[in-house]
């Protein structure tokens, strides 16, 4: 059964991502070990933030660091505000998860 009505659903995105990783034989340990309860966008942010933290880099402006500038220019004012608020919420969740993971790794 195909999903014709929802071409950009989360499940289709996850399936495409898994298929491309399988074809390339490339699996990122951080991506595999990411929490299962997060959305694909949150997972991507989690992996980026974890790599930055492990490299010893600090994020001073998360919106400028993680926002898609091309997408921001195409959005209306209300949509831009919604995008930034969602990005901030995703960043706070990812930051908390990364801090917890690094703390667990230090104890182990």
Keywords:
108 residues; mainly alpha
Summarize this structure briefly.
This protein has 108 residues and is mainly α. It contains six helices and no strands.
Specify the structural class: mainly alpha
The parts where pLDDT drops under 50 for at least 5 residues are none
Question: What is the N-to-C succession of helices and strands?
Answer: HHHHHH
Which term fits the overall shape? Answer: globular
Largest sheet: none
Number of helices: 6
Mean pLDDT: 82
What share of the residues does DSSP label as strand, in percent? under 5%
Portion in helices: over 70%
- How many DSSP-defined strands? 0
**First-last Cα distance:** 45 Å
Radius of gyration: 16 Å
Which helices and strands, and how do they pair?
Blueprint: H1 10-24, H2 29-32, H3 40-54, H4 62-66, H5 69-74, H6 77-107
Helix pairs in contact: 3-6
Structure report:
The protein is an all-alpha fold. It is built from 6 helices and no strands. Helix 3 (40-54) crosses helix 6 (77-107). The N and C termini lie far apart (45 Å). The model has no long low-confidence stretch (mean pLDDT 82).
């Amino acid at each position: 059964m195909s999903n014709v009505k929802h071409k950009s659903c989360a499940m289709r995105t996850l399936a495409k991502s898994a298929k491309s990783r399988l074809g390339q034989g490339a699996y990122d340990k951080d991506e595999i070990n990411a929490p299962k309860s997060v959305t694909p966008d949150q997972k991507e942010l989690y992996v980026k933030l974890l790599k930055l933290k492990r490299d010893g880099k600090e994020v001073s402006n998360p919106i400028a660091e993680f926002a898609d500038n091309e997408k921001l220019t195409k959005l209306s004012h209300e949509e831009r505000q919604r995008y930034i608020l969602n990005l901030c919420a995703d960043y706070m969740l990812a930051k908390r998860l990364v801090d917890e993971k690094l703390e667990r790794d230090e104890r182990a």
